[in-house]
Amino acid sequence: MSDIEFEQGVDATTEAVVQASTRITPESSVEVRQIVLRIDEPAFYFLEGQTIGVLVPGPHPFGNKSHHRYYTVANAKGDESGVELELLVRRCSYIDDVSGEEYPGIASHYLCNAQVGARITLTGPYRSPFRIPTDKSSNLLMLGTGTGIAPFRAFLRRIYEEQKGWDGKVRLYFGARNGTEMLYMNDLNADLTNYYDQATFKAIQGLRGGVLSDDADAVSASVEQHAAEVWDLVCSPTTHVYLAGMKKVADNFDASMEKLAGSAEQWQTIKQGLIEDRRWSELTYI
Question: Which positions ≥6 away from 72 have C-beta within 8 Å?
Answer without folding.
Answer: 1, 4, 49, 50, 51, 87, 128, 148, 150, 151, 244, 283
